[in-house]
Amino acid sequence: MPLPARFEVVTVPDGQPRTKPRALNAALPLARGEHLVVYDAEDVIEPDQLRRAATLFAQSPSTACLQGRLVIDNEADGILPRLFAIEYAALFDVLAPALAAWRMPIPLGGTSTHFRTRVLLSLHGWDAWNVTEDADLGLRLALAGYRVGDLPSSTYEEAPKRLKAWLRQRARWMKGFLQTSFTHGRRPLTVCRRLGAAESLCALAFVPGTVVSALFYPFLMAGSLGELFLAPADSTILAHLTRAAAWTVFFAGLAAMWLPGFAGCLRRGWRDLLPCVLLLPFYQLLVSLAAWMAMIEWLRDPHRWNKTEHGLARTSRTGALGRRPSGAAAVRSASTAPLPSPLPDGSG
Asked: Apex CA 53: angle with CA 48 and CA 55, to 5°?
């Protein structure tokens, strides 16, 4: 794909590991701007996103990173992309902005992440061996005392519509969460002191907690359903209290899955997807399968990068994905959305 003269293509030398963070580290020393952004090649960004990011950086000197809002745009391709779109809406339109407002550690997305270049250089870039380098970097930013902010600008992405591709992608993410957990879990007391109590609980819930909850979800769900519906009736007060507590925990778990999904769909105006939110407990079973695949991969081939093919979307809610080349060409090329013009001060 021919690019304007202001773009420079950097070829990464052959070697190991063959990962995205290694490629990013190869380009980082060549970054000349005050700010730096990472986009996946298949992304379609809102044309004013770089200007909005530069404005927020100027207004908040303490912010080291801004996370854009990732949006799945091909949800009409099937039930799996629909559930993926709901999951992203819950994460990037509800949870991530809340965590940013509360100044909590945020596992970054792998794309649409805007940085102050000097901060990245001070952290020595990304962990080249981590296959979910974004989550690791988000935690390292928090440990270094930097703040991650929310960038209310959309970046449109394509979700895998085939189960095999979705499982491979999610297994890589889960494997990277395991790597991040063990990397930073070697000195837990030091991490707790540097983060603080509430921040440590947040990091624990969103990094190792994501994997652990996914691994045990089907077993705990089956046990809960068996206890609630198959356990023999008992009329003692203790039995009634136990059953009431079980129902409370059960519905609280469903609410924890449903409420962010409903809120994300409403914020996006996706009222047609609201009925699909009820399917999230079943979607979580697929997340659990991916977590178990990640465990096996982590033991057998911890640094393998499962690539995800793109350019296969047949639908696009906004029409953004339709502006890209179709077929195999889209897999190799960058997004053909209108490119923002360079900022006057070169900070974009």
From this structure: 95
